[in-house]
Each structure stands twice: as structure tokens, then as C-alpha cells.
Amino acid sequence: MLEFGPLEVDETEVLEFARRYDPQPFHIDHEAAKKSPYEGIIASGWQTCSFVMRALVDNYFSPISSLGSPGIDELRWILPVRPGDKLMVRATIIETKRSRSKPDRGIVRTFIETINQHEDLVMSFRSVNFMLCRDAS
Fold first, then answer.
1. Phi and psi dihedrals of 14, rounded to 5?
2. Which terminus of the chain has a smaller tally of CB atoms within 10 A, N or C?
3. What is this structure's pTM?
4. What is the span of the domain harbouring residue 62?
5. The CATH number of the domain where 50 resides is what?
6. 105 φ, ψ to 5°?
7. Using the 8-state DSSP alphabet, how is residue 40 labeled?
8. Is 112:91 a contact under the CB 8 Å cutoff?
9. Is the pLDDT of residue 75 over 90?
């Protein structure tokens, strides 16, 4: 298991991201957010994904061998992420295998967890990534 962080959730960034990409009232309007089930401003789940992606790029993916991803599976937003939260990202490699059709490449399956400063799981997903492989010889 690998762990990265902490990633600090800044209120200004939360509001700017939400106004631009996910303008639901509980992301952008303090009064509406107080009346919502969340009882305050929360970050967009898509912004939380963006925080995690940055941490993975900076700490996990190799700039030399990473070849992208066909997607993620089982994305879950379990608890709201709030301004002021400090997030940790945990990456657990589930499986590695060499591609049958392109033997210079491999497939890495990883379980990604995002945990807040209270040790609460706030988001999880499974990723599939393509990587260049070392020569087997």
C-alpha cells in the first residue's frame, strides 16, 4: 500500500471549481448549503477525483512508463468532503499482468481510497492503468 498527502481542501478552490463545473447549490451557495442535507458547503465529488488524480500523477504514475487508462470502476463518494479537510490517498495494487496482445505493456489494477483527517473513508474507486514493461530478459 502506498499513501500520499495530506491534500488540503481550500474553500476558495471548492467554490471556484463548483461555479465552473458543478454549480449545485450545496457546492456554491452558503445559505442553500446550510439548508441542505449536508448542512454546509461541500466539495464536488468531481473535484475530489481531481485532487486524487493530481496526487496519483505526482506520486504514483511514472512519467516514463504511464500510458493512460481505459477508465475507473466502482467510484463511490461515501462522505462529503468539506473546506478545511485534509485528505490522504491510499493506493493498493490489486493485480499486475502483462498484456497478451502488446507484450511491451502491462495492466495494473489499483484500489484507491481517499481518507479525511478523521480517518473516515470519503471516496474510493478501482483504477485500471496501462504501463510500459521492462524487458523480460
1. -60, -50
2. C
3. 0.89
4. 2-132
5. 3.10.129.10
6. -125, 155
7. S
8. yes
9. yes
